Amino acid sequence: MTGALLAADLVNLGERSVWTVPEVQAVFREHVIRWSDVDKSDVPALRRWTTRLRAVFVAPDEEQRCRSINALLLDGVASV
What we know:
This protein is an all-alpha fold. The chain has helices at 2-14, 21-30, 43-58, 62-79.
């Protein structure tokens, strides 16, 4: 369940207007992410990803939720 819980905490962090590196690192450490080192240049990309991830949590119905998940999976697979 680490992935789902981490995703939820990042989405909740995303509601803040400003993210700091220590806040992001704290979320990663809380979920025992081994490579929790984040620097200032990582934060904007992580925040963009989290904004897209939020669509999964706020989807009005199952169909839209599945579309949002599939779009994230497609981008994730394409970027690996």
